[in-house]
DNA sequence: ACACATGTTACTTTAAAAATAACAGGATTG
DNA sequence: CAATCCTGTTATTTTTAAAGTAACATGTGT
């Protein structure tokens, strides 16, 4: 499969809006930064808006974070773009007649849930603000700016 | 993308070999349990063998775990089939001219590594034996067996 | 009215995984 | 030693979910 980077793009969008509030915040401008297309950006922004992370206005390029960046976690962003994220995926086509094939799915489901919970706990501890702070450190440390 | 379930299949294979040692352990038989094809099974088994988790013999259908199932972790299996697993994926095509686009990749790389480490720590704590034990509980609790 | 924006739906392209095929060799049996 | 079944590996085709693109109804401000 082609691995999804929707989460990365969503974080990118939120960071852009928070860090460059005086720039052009149209979907076209953000798309130029993401090197993607405006339609994709609008779809992601729509999901972020529906999740209550972003405030937008139809017709006006004036998106704003709905809450302080310090109170938005990476997990919040993930759940905004995917209500039931699965980092690990189960093979749902196994032989039900077999002891292993017939029980491995439920078993792995339990196991993967543990891993998912651990990963999401870490994600819940990482705020958009900390990501922005780190990005600025990276930018400051660049040789040629 | 199509999300990979190689990890699930690899666990399935190891579980099958450990739990049904007196059954036919040919790639064709295992493929019937996974509902996949023998070639795929052989490729996965080859990776597991190279990682030192499985002992196989060309020409003979007699695979065996190289170590006790209690000493094989889910993380070991993951690394056997993918030396550099990435649960979250970065968008590697962003505008380098932009403050955000030019620094988001390194930033997310750091952030995702934290999440990856948390997930892998949990995976390291889950043994193949515990997965097998849980599978047997599931099998025992099935209404119609 | 016009220019430009969002929000949403539908369609096309793409790339990674899975499926399949093929075959060189090892093992076992009669 | 021929026949048969197996493994291990490579190459090719098919599938499918994400990304890319297009289109358009509708909101906004001059």
UniProtKB/TrEMBL annotation, chains A, B:
MF (Gene Ontology)? DNA-binding transcription factor activity
Q: Which Gene3D superfamilies match?
A: Winged helix-like DNA-binding domain superfamily/Winged helix DNA-binding domain
Task: Supply the source organism for this entry.
Answer: Secundilactobacillus kimchicus JCM 15530
GO CC, sorted alphabetically, is: cytosol
What SUPFAM superfamilies does the record point to?
Winged helix' DNA-binding domain
* Pfam families per record: Rrf2
- Its protein name is Transcriptional regulator
The lineage's top-level taxon is Bacteria
Q: Which InterPro entries match?
A: Tscrpt_reg_Rrf2, WH-like_DNA-bd_sf, WH_DNA-bd_sf
């Amino acid at each position: 499969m082609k691995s999804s980077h929707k989460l990365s793009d969503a974080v990118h969008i939120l960071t852009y809006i928070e860090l460059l509030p005086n720039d052009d915040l149209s979907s076209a401008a953000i798309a130029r930064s993401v090197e993607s297309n405006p339609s994709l950006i609008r779809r992601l922004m729509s999901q972020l808006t529906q999740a209550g992370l972003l405030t937008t206005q139809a017709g006006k390029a004036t998106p704003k974070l709905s809450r302080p960046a310090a109170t938005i976690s990476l997990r919040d962003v993930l759940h905004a773009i995917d209500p039931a994220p699965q980092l690990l995926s189960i093979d749902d086509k196994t032989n039900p007649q077999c002891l292993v094939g017939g029980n491995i799915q439920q078993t792995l489901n339990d196991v993967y849930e543990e891993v998912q919970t651990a990963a999401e706990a870490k994600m819940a501890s990482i705020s958009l603000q900390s990501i922005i702070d780190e990005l600025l450190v990276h930018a400051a440390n660049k040789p040629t700016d």
